[in-house]
Structures are given as structure tokens and as C-alpha cells.
Amino acid sequence: MTLEAIGAIITFTKNAEEFLKRKKVHRDLIFKYLANEGVVMPPNSEKNKLVKRTLELWSSGKAGVDQSLPGETDDTKQRLTSDTDIVKAEVGFDPLVLGQQFCQWFFPLLNSQNPSLGQPPQDWGPKHFWPDAKLRLLSRAGSEQMEEFLGAELVSLRLLALTRDEQLLLSPNLEPQGLRTLASPHGLVLVAVAGTIHRDGACLGLFEQMFWPHPLPRWRTTAGRSSSST
Which domain of life is it from (predicted)? Predict the structure, then answer.
């Protein structure tokens, strides 16, 4: 499974429950996952019960931080792990460190556009994106709304509106629980990060954002999925 395919699957999945209930996420896979996490379930448990128990586990925060992506087969996991190891050994960088450094650059830059911080904004604009950058923004605040923007100018302006006009602050979780990266032998890296959304000191909800590469060696999609709730 390619990085772009994984990104597309996650982007079009509304939440964890919907993902787990997909036909391709087999009952036996969920059962095995729970067993690996030390959760004992009856061998004849129906898939719905396994899904419910998995969601309870994730909500408790007790799941291992080195867990597989939901629906990931052993073969896929082995290939992705192997690819990441190859990148570390041959290209000379750790994808997780790259993801952390990228987020430490991107989010402070975007948040600095928020006038409520009372500080001069950093230099933001379309120059930070490739000309064919694509943004897909999914928001949930009572109702669900999907927006898509194509091109560096539109992507830059829409992200700018989140912080400058809507005065939102995005606080990413750069610990292993909130940040995941996948790498290919070619050096392409997918970065997925989760965090909280704030305004005027109040936490409004949650966000999940993905940055994934174009098949060519450059960044294309600058933001894959963002969701918020109040």
C-alpha cells in the first residue's frame, strides 16, 4: 500500500469507529490487535463488540504508543517498517525527527498570524507551498463541511483565514501518541499529527492534519485532513 493510498483512506474516514467497521478491516485483525494489547475477548466475539472494545481502549489512552495503523496487515507493516529503516540507514535521517521538525516550523508560523497573540506575524504566503498544492479541509462543528482548494495561493489564504480571521490556535501533540510518520525508500515522508484547537484560552476541539507527498519527489498536498468539534 502506497503512502498516498494510506493518506487517502484516512482522509475519507470520518472517525475511528467508521474505519474499524470497514469491510476490509477484518474481525480477526481487530481480535489480534486487542490480544496484543493485553485485552482478552471471547474467541467468538462479534466484530461490533470488538470495535466497541477497541474504541474504549483508545479512549482510555492505555493503548501502546507503537501500535499499527488501523487496518494495517502484517505484510504492510513489515514493508513500511523496512522502508523506514532503509531511509534511516541510507538517506541518513529519521522520519520521526523530520516530522517533529517540520511541525515545529509549520505550526508556529501559522499560529503567528493570529492577532490575539499580540506579536508580529512571521512571513507567511504561497511561497511556502508548491504551485499545485492541494488542501482538503473537513470540519465538524454541529454539521459537517468539506472544502477543497487547489494551488499555492488558495491553500495559503484558506489556512491563513483559520488563524488570522477565525483566530484559532492549533496546538500539535508532537509526542509519539500524536505524531506518526511513514517513509519510502525514495525519501518521501508522510506526516500525520493530531492536537487541540484553541481560541482566547479556551479549548474548542480537536484536529488531525496530514501532510503527504506527491509521487514525484516533492510535497504536493500540504494539508490532508483537519477536523474540529465544539
Answer: Eukaryota
Nearest residue to 203 via CA among 179, 171, 173, 226 = 171
Owning domain of residue 113: 91-221
Kindly state the DSSP code that residue 223 receives in the 8-state scheme.
B
Instruction: Give the chain's domain count.
Output: 1
Q: Per residue in 17-59, pLDDT tens?
A: 777 787 777 888 888 878 777 788 887 889 999 888 888 877 6
Q: Residue 180 maps to which CATH number?
A: 3.10.450.50
Q: Which single residue is written with the C-alpha cell 534511516?
A: 88
**Radius of gyration of the chain measured on its C-alpha atoms:** 19
pLDDT, tens only, 213-227: 654 333 222 333 334
Spatial CA neighbour of 20 closest among 40, 45, 50: 50
Q: Are residues 156 and 126 in contact, defined by beta-carbon separation less than 8 angstroms?
A: yes
pTM metric for this prediction: 0.58
